[in-house]
Design brief:
Elements: H1 17-25, H2 47-59, H3 69-83, E1 92-95, H4 98-109, E2 115-120, H5 125-132, E3 136-141, E4 143-145, E5 148-150, H6 153-160, E6 165-171, H7 183-195, E7 199-203, E8 230-234, E9 248-251, H8 255-263, H9 272-284, H10 286-310, E10 315-316, E11 324-328, H11 336-346, E12 352-353, E13 364-368, H12 373-393
Parallel strand pairs: 2-3, 2-6, 6-7, 7-8
Antiparallel strand pairs: 1-9, 4-5, 8-9, 10-11, 11-13, 12-13
């Protein structure tokens, strides 16, 4: 490989959310324990981004900044080249992160007391931003059929037909179950929302992280029929580990919808370095991403083989997209509290507990695979020892 995915940068004491959370949970935890929880990468940043930002800092000030032609060209070029979809410059609404975008847009198109439809188990901030706006969450639970998650379209339609449901937050690819939705599935979701006047807010933050053999279908590629009822959230934050840059683009084809969003949005959405990082990622770092995906996929195959060898009873959802492995430990018969305690105290494995993604996630763990192989292997070995000892004591 041309790029370095083996170097581990320690993130203690620099404000890393998950590394600080690790120390807060257990101040005595050894320095070599790496949290595999929150969805950012434990990889060295793509060199083109690092060098580009250094050069920018040498040559420019850090005053108020707005999007440039180079910025629009980089994003539009990426969407066309990587996903085969044309986005127009006038569709852009920039936000400092997709969670901020979701919170803002839900506030624009709902009233307190309205229902926001989500498909669970799902990224927990969907629930939080809906409730922040005084809305109540309406859940349509995904179905687990023959080892693969599917949308329960009968249930989804029934929920969308409810008078109180005004907006749907959709996750594509799906976090945490790893599904990359087919065009047929996406069209059915879009049709149901359109037919029932439910605004479709589509989060595609993981859309660049697609495993070999699968293809992401952008919601925008389904056709103009859906444009008035659709906003699509994108970001290089996951793809290039730029979450700390807080840069995202929401594509809103409808002028009326777009103006409604912009009226209540801060004039200055991204900072000077965020704009530049997006350019250096999308324009100059595609080869890095390709190698990162290959490395993550190898980690996926390693983890799946590890569980198959040591705990064949454990179900693992196919990780078609994202770098987040969804692992079902319910066969061990632990309560949610027992499972979390065993993994953290006995295995020193700090993962994202499945229950944070909704009731249907109880008993699952979400494991972040965007890390050096030795880090993943060490965590799995500690997990194996802890789970084996637990089984022995039963």
């Amino acid at each position: 490989m041309k790029y370095d995915f083996e170097t581990l940068l320690t993130r203690h004491g620099v404000g890393s959310f998950k590394w600080d959370e690790l120390r807060e949970a257990d101040p005595s935890i050894p320095d070599d324990i790496v949290p595999l929880s929150v969805a950012d990468m434990e990889f060295v940043t793509a060199p083109a981004i690092v060098e580009g930002l250094k050069q920018y800092l040498d040559l420019h000030s850090l005053g108020y900044t707005r999007a440039t032609d180079a910025y629009y060209d980089a994003v539009i070029g990426w969407m066309a080249r990587r996903h085969g979809v044309t986005v127009r410059r006038e569709w852009f609404v920039e936000f400092s992160g997709i969670v901020s975008a979701l919170r803002h847009i839900i506030g624009v198109f709902t009233e307190p007391g309205d229902g926001v439809l989500i498909m669970t188990p799902v990224y927990h901030h969907f629930r939080m931003v809906a409730e922040d706006n005084g809305c109540h969450v309406v859940e349509s639970e995904l179905l687990l059929k023959d080892g693969r998650y599917e949308i329960d379209f009968d249930d989804f339609r029934e929920k969308a037909e409810r008078a109180d449901v005004k907006l749907c937050v959709f996750c594509s690819p799906h976090n945490p179950v790893g599904r990359v939705w087919t065009e047929e599935e996406l069209r059915r979701v879009a049709d149901i929302c359109l037919e029932n006047g439910v605004f479709l807010l589509d989060d595609e933050i993981h859309s660049d992280l697609i495993m070999p053999g699968y293809r992401h279908v952008p919601m925008l590629s389904l056709g103009e029929k859906y444009f008035d009822n659709l906003a699509v959230c994108t970001s290089p934050g996951k793809s290039f580990n730029l979450a700390g840059m807080q840069a995202s683009n929401v594509f809103v084809p409808s002028e009326a919808r777009r103006l409604a969003i912009q009226r209540k949005r801060s004039r200055f959405s991204l900072n000077a370095l965020s704009y530049q990082a997006v350019i250096f990622a999308y324009r100059d770092s595609e080869a890095w991403l390709d190698e990162a995906i290959a490395y993550i996929d190898a980690n996926r195959r390693f983890a799946v083989s590890f569980f198959k060898e040591h705990f064949p009873e454990v179900f693992i959802s196919d990780m078609e997209g994202t770098y987040l492995l969804w692992v079902d430990l319910r066969s061990f018969g632990m309560t949610v509290g027992e499972q979390e305690t065993l993994l953290r105290k006995k295995a020193l494995c700090y993962l994202d507990e499945g229950y944070i993604f909704g009731k249907r996630g109880e008993g699952f763990e979400r494991i972040n695979l965007a890390c050096p192989r030795r880090v993943l292997e060490a965590a799995l070995l500690r997990m194996k020892d802890a789970l084996t000892a637990y089984k022995r004591e039963l």
